[in-house]
């Protein structure tokens, strides 16, 4: 009888040990499953699909730091294009300048008002002149903050009788700001300065 009790007690201990191991194993399995699900969910949230026409194009979210060089250069190019691409139409010029001045600080506004006071925009409209800018390169220094940049480009001034080509070199700094509809890259140009803007060729039409 005593031996049977010992056997029952031993069997109970084995069952209890087995149950404990089983509970721990299930807990570990559930924990791993939850962890894996969260990881997959995080990956899924970084993946989006853009619909272009009838096709869905897959895109991935990335850290802002990975995109700083590309976005910063595009911000600088966009500002210069808006500021220097001019048509002989007052409303077009005003629309371009309004958009451009969201991308720069007071230095951009000062340059705009300086040109306006000199009747530069009025002369473009009255003489039926078009102005186009082409970006040659943008040098960007990410080792300092605000980020320093230097812009190199050429401007074509298209008149009735001639086409004037000018060099343009500007410099400034970029600081981070909140993204918005008016500033999609989330940068602001600071202390913008024109270093060179001179004629390099004139061709008759």
Q: Which value, in Å, is the CA radius of gyration?
A: 32 Å
Number of helices: 5
- Helix/strand-derived category reads alpha+beta
Q: What is the 3D shape? A: rod-shaped
Strands across the major sheet, in which order? 3-4-5-6
Helicity, as a percent range: 40-55%
Largest sheet: 4 strands, antiparallel
Terminal residue distance: 121 Å
Order of helices and strands: HEEHHHHEEEE
Q: CATH first level of the largest domain: which class?
A: Alpha Beta
Number of spatially distinct domains: 2
CATH superfamily of the largest domain: VirB8 protein
Short structural description:
The chain has 205 residues and is an alpha+beta fold. The chain contains five helices and six strands.
């Amino acid at each position: 009888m005593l031996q049977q009790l010992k056997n029952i007690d031993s069997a109970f201990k084995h069952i209890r040990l087995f149950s404990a191991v089983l509970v721990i194993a299930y807990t570990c399995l559930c924990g791993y499953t939850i962890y894996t699900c969260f990881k997959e969910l995080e990956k899924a949230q970084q993946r989006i699909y853009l619909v272009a026409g009838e096709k869905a194009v897959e895109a991935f979210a990335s850290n802002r730091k990975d995109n700083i060089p590309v976005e910063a250069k595009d911000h600088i190019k966009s500002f210069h294009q808006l500021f220097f691409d001019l048509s002989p139409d007052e409303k077009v010029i005003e629309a371009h300048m309004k958009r451009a001045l969201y991308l720069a600080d007071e230095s951009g506004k000062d340059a705009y008002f300086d040109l306006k006071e000199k009747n530069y925009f009025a002369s473009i409209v009255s003489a039926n002149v078009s102005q186009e800018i082409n970006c040659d390169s943008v040098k960007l220094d990410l080792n300092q903050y605000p980020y320093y940049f230097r812009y190199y480009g050429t401007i074509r001034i298209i008149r009735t009788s001639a086409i004037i080509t000018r060099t343009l070199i500007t410099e400034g700094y970029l600081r981070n700001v909140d993204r918005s509809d008016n500033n999609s890259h989330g940068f602001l140009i600071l202390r913008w300065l024109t270093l060179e803007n001179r004629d390099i060729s004139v061709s008759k039409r």
